[in-house]
Amino acid sequence: MSLPLIELTGSPYEQGKQHGALLQPQIAHNVDVYFRRFLQEGGVARAEVLRRAERYAAAIARQNAAYASGMDGIAAGAGIAYEEIVALNVRYEILYYQYAVNKVAAADGCTSFALAPQATEGGHLLLGQNWDWIPEVAGAVAHTTHPDGFQTLAFTEAGIFGGKIGLNTAGVGLAINGITTTADEWTRLEKPFHLRCYEILRSRSLAEALQIVTGTPRSCSGNYLIAQVPDRAVNVEAAPDVASRLGWQQGQIVHANHFVDPDGLGVTEPPDAEHRQRSCRRQQRLEQLLATKRPVSLSGVQAALRDHSTAPRHICRHEDPAAPVDEQYRTVTSIVLDLAEGELYATDGPPCENEYALFAL
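Above: the chain's sequence. Below: its structure in token form.
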């Protein structure tokens, strides 16, 4: 099996309406999954989630009217209340703020990478990650042609407008990681994480994409690994008020779910030493795997993303039978982007059990 591909065209509202109609069952499923997780994992009841969504809806309408229109279209196409769709689109701020409040680190998963052309077998700029998250969440690959002819190709969760891991016809690509600080605060109502991802994937240049991350403060922390052909990549660790940039290190950049130097940046991560150790091990292991055999082939990258040598949290993650149901996570999709070719390779589930399907601009 492979992730569903949805073809979207027209105005943002029309794109959203097509998204909603094509993925209606998956969106309804995700609404159920997230409202259950908001309560079980974050301690946030439905009425409070909707209150936060209503406040964010007004902020997003001011920050990016096109994105607000896209969410409105999804609600219309899927026949689901607008506030519930907004809640999906700001689920990062809802859950990651609760992680900070509850003094726990972000969900331990997601290992991302970039490989410079000189490090790869085909001489192409490669970008990607394992996206580790709630096992039940339904996703899709959205191929979007905007009214001006600009195209994006990205993985998204059903019900979240735009995309979060993908590329565009300007050769810009994006991979992401969840990170947290004790300063994360949803009530700041700054431009939310998924809206920034949408704008990055519509950027024509690396400089424009970086400005989207750093140009305004953030409500909650996030890590953005952004690249552009032929050979540029920058990783941005963005806390609410400060950010740091990491560049090429021996032809690669690898990142997991921790700040590389929180003290140097002046941020405080939630007091979870075990989480940091696990995240560091995964990051170091992927760095090692990608540096061992040069030049790295596409199949070599995919093999590295199947690695199971950093117990108990592998690069290729599976549910932990010993963990409570509301704390289960796994690799929902593994993605490799060939920015030179405009290609996206993605699995539907852990890559050790599922083949990579090719999607192309």
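Residues 165 and 326 are 25 Å apart (CA to CA).
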